[in-house]
Specification:
Glutaredoxin; Glutathione S-transferase Yfyf (Class Pi), Chain A, domain 2; binds glutathione; alpha+beta; 4-stranded mixed β-sheet; 9 helices; 4 strands
Length: 199
């Protein structure tokens, strides 16, 4: 049995859980909660970087959502990072955009929620918003490339879920990317997404 150190609000963790669910192997993973902002020593024993996700397996521990997904992809479930070069590159390209937007959103959240107000640096927040907006535009221009369930579309879905969760009132992404909004209306109804909604 694999173990996943997780936090429910983390979009990177959500990516890994949705990936495992879509691959049909979620029942082989035991979820073990971790609070990366609480007792750092606890998560640090599994991930020296003090971050979730960390996937503990009989083949060693994987830290970072991409490495976790890559390992899960080779555990005899449905393949979601295809070997066929063109499909693989497409998944990688879309993953890169969505994962980067996720990271910029996390930076924004940390900067705006965790820093004392007098230390918040608005130009840095604006830089993150611009990154997210450009990534949304790039994905909106390539909707055909997230039409299959793979690492790219899964990461895109989790990134948009995180925007809904954390950027309400700050970024109207549906107005900016209406095609993506229509895509997400369907994608977010998948059981893997419904089961993993952040509170
Ligand atoms: N690139 C990493 C990012 C993981 C990450 O930033 N996780 C956040 C939660 S969403 C975390 O644990 N942060 C705690 C910290 O940075 O100390 C991945 O893909 O897993």
């Amino acid at each position: 049995m694999m173990k996943l150190r997780y936090a429910k609000a983390s979009p990177f963790v959500r990516k890994v859980i949705v990936f495992a669910d879509e691959a049909g192997i979620a029942d082989r993973i035991e979820l073990q909660p971790a609070d990366p902002w609480g007792n750092e020593a606890d998560i640090a024993k599994d991930n020296p970087l003090g971050k979730v996700p960390a996937l503990i397996t009989s083949d060693g521990t994987f830290v970072g959502s991409f490495a976790c997904c890559d390992y899960l992809d080779r555990r005899n479930g449905k393949r979601l990072i295809p070997d066929e070069p063109k499909l693989r590159w497409r998944a990688m390209q879309m993953h890169g955009l969505a994962d980067g937007a996720m990271e910029a959103t996390l930076v924004y959240v940390i900067e705006s929620l965790r820093r004392p107000a007098e230390f918040v640096y608005q130009p840095y927040l604006d830089r993150q918003t611009a990154k997210i907006e450009r990534a949304l535009d790039a994905i909106e221009a390539r909707l055909g490339d997230i039409s299959e369930i793979d690492l790219g579309s899964i990461t895109t879905g989790c990134m948009l879920g995180y925007l809904d969760f954390r950027m309400k009132g700050k970024l109207d992404w549906r107005k900016r990317a209406p095609g993506l909004a229509a895509w997400y209306a369907d994608f977010s109804k998948r059981p893997s997404m419904l089961k993993t909604q952040p509170d």
